[in-house]
Amino acid sequence: MICGSKTKSYLKSQNLKILGQGKLNGIVKISGAKNSALVLLASSLLTNEKIILENVPFLTDIEKMGNILKNLGVNLVRKNNQLEIDPTTISIKELPYELVKGLRASFFCIGALLTKFGEAQVPLPGGCNIGSRPIDEHINGLIALGADIVIEEGIVKAKTRGNKNRLHGTHIKLNCPSVGATETLIMAASLAKGRTTIKNAAREPEVQDLCQMLNKMGAKIYDSGKETIIIDGVNKLGGCTHKVIPDRIEAGTFLIAAAATSSSITISPVIPHHLEAVTDKLQESGSKITIKGNSISIKSKEIKGVDIETAPFPGFPTDLQAPFTTLMTIANGESKITETIFENRMNHIYLLNEMGASIKLNKNVAHIKGVKRINGMNLVGSDLRSSAALIIAGIIAKGSSNFYGLEHLDRGYENFELKLKNLGVKIIREISKKTFEENGYKIDPRSDKISKLEAA
């Protein structure tokens, strides 16, 4: 997914071969959080001084955001999981469509570019096909901060109002606690004149991580992690060194995989309170959770069905709904999974049923009757998190499975199959002569059963 389709096409010619009924054992090193690193990269546009980001994961989404920054004139130097970002040579303010079409997080750049330069042009964003994810909250908030915005031919064109070259502080109340909108408006307000108050703000750890880094850069942001965030605008921001928080979604995925396989593993480093909603449900379903410092250990045997409903942080994360659904397919008893955040985030249900699960889907509510066994088969991921869910399904299934859709998986999981292999899972990445569509492994388009496969 680098500046076009080369990487994406290459990944489409790869697949994972998984031998099922595996067990996990060992320690998993958790990578830096993708969703945090992406917005931290965007925030580097706010300064003219060097930023050093540590604990940055190797992911195609990160690479794509890096290419967007390079296109703007930013100089990037990677040393292992460290990125040195030099924004002193930014030369253009418009982002090209071919770079942003597959990465929704690219839209976060609009707040930084607008508040720093007084204008910005950003194409409407792309990303996983999991729902509409409107940008109304971003737009309305920027207008409240003093921007004139028009959308023409898919391009969002923003400019500070009148002859003013700065945005101005204001009171903003979000209709929903959108993470992206909260982050965009925090960045925009950081260089605005005066005080901005954002009510009903997102409380996610990634938002808090952004605020911590901006404050290191000289911003004045108060009460991140609370429903109301206050930002006192400053005249300029400087450089800093910042370490990306651990990826709570990757951590949760491995905990769920361990529960699904009746295994015992330890994950580290993590920030345990970021995962409380997940560990609470895992304990409720029968797993034993032990927390020591920045590590979490799980020991699982029989799993019983429990209900979950996705919600903004500190609720159960939508990004772990699909993996948890896989866990519930083999749980004792019945469970109900309710997706409240994205309308198209049940793409994995059809394939889980094909494997032998018993799931009835009514809009965004899945009613699951646990079965004793599911069977391996050819699997196609349609978005990032459903891909992780289907790989877990392949691990617990009887027989072998071939998973296709690595262009989705590699967007958000660093060395996923290698980490699984180190835990004892029999899994290898294969290179085929043909893509999975040409091989006939693409899901039969009985389209009412599953939404489009196309995604970033």
Quickly describe the structure.
The active site is at 128 (proton donor). GO terms for molecular function: UDP-N-acetylglucosamine 1-carboxyvinyltransferase activity. The protein has 456 residues and is α+β, with helices and mostly antiparallel strands.
Describe the structure.
It is a single chain. Helices cover 31% and strands 24% of the residues. The chain has 456 residues and is of the alpha+beta class. The chain has two domains: 177 residues, Enolpyruvate transferase domain (UDP-n-acetylglucosamine1-carboxyvinyl-transferase, Chain, Alpha-beta prism); 210 residues, UDP-n-acetylglucosamine1-carboxyvinyl-transferase, Chain (Alpha-beta prism). The strands form six sheets. A four-stranded mixed sheet has the order 21-22-1-23. A four-stranded mixed sheet has the order 2-14-16-15, with helices on one face. Strand 9, helix 7 and strand 10 form a beta-alpha-beta unit. It is elongated. Belongs to the EPSP synthase family. MurA subfamily. It is found in: Cytoplasm. It comes from Prochlorococcus marinus XMU1424. One of its GO terms (biological process) is regulation of cell shape. InterPro entries: Enolpyruvate_Tfrase_dom (IPR001986), Enolpyruvate_Tfrase_sf (IPR036968), MurA_subfamily (IPR050068), RNA3'P_cycl/enolpyr_Trfase_a/b (IPR013792), UDP_GlcNAc_COvinyl_MurA (IPR005750).
